[in-house]
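Subject: complex prediction, re-run

Hi both,

The earlier run crashed halfway through, so I resubmitted it with identical inputs.
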Amino acid sequence: EPEVTQTPSHQVTQMGQEVILRCVPISNHLYFYWYRQILGQKVEFLVSFYNNEISEKSEIFDDQFSVERPDGSNFTLKIRSTKLEDSAMYFCASRDSRAAGNTIYFGEGSWLTVV
Amino acid sequence: RKEVEQDPGPFNVPEGATVAFNCTYSNSASQSFFWYRQDCRKEPKLLMSVYSSGNEDGRFTAQLNRASQYISLLIRDSKLSDSATYLCVVNQAGTALIFGKGTTLSVSS
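This time it finished cleanly. Structure:
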């Protein structure tokens, strides 16, 4: 079964450093997402991406965050000047259609710890 | 008002029990509804979509009441492997999935 892959699986970074989380969505998918889940909290939407641009973003996705699809396969989330409260599991997801009922597939996540 | 609300549990049940989870959502424009399962520190995985007429997949039955903005999941004959957090998820066309905080189920032998 095709899958969304994410790297790294776990990263520890010092406060103030920049972090790039990488994702390879399923190859024929067109819509890409980043979600995050702080330990013990719910899964929260960050941003969606289609046709090389952001299609929707949440209040969480402020100027500290950016996304990019640099080469047609990778989809990255950059977090500038990380803060302690950025510690969370970050999930990448993709789907092939915008239709409401269409299945979205999640990667296994990148666990970010900011110290 | 929270967009998707669930009883957090935990629900502790013996093997073989029947257990039901409830969920309410606030946005009446929501069009699609799902139950996801999440194991500890793992990604959410789709358990089943929820259709207006109700639907069943083996031991799992999902119901939707649009008028009450209420979704349910029934698990029959619980197995140890059903222990997980069950996430209620809603969606409008073209927008992001909105997750509830989840209901934790623990099935014991």
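The CA atoms of residues 20 and 74 of chain B lie 4 Å apart.

- K.
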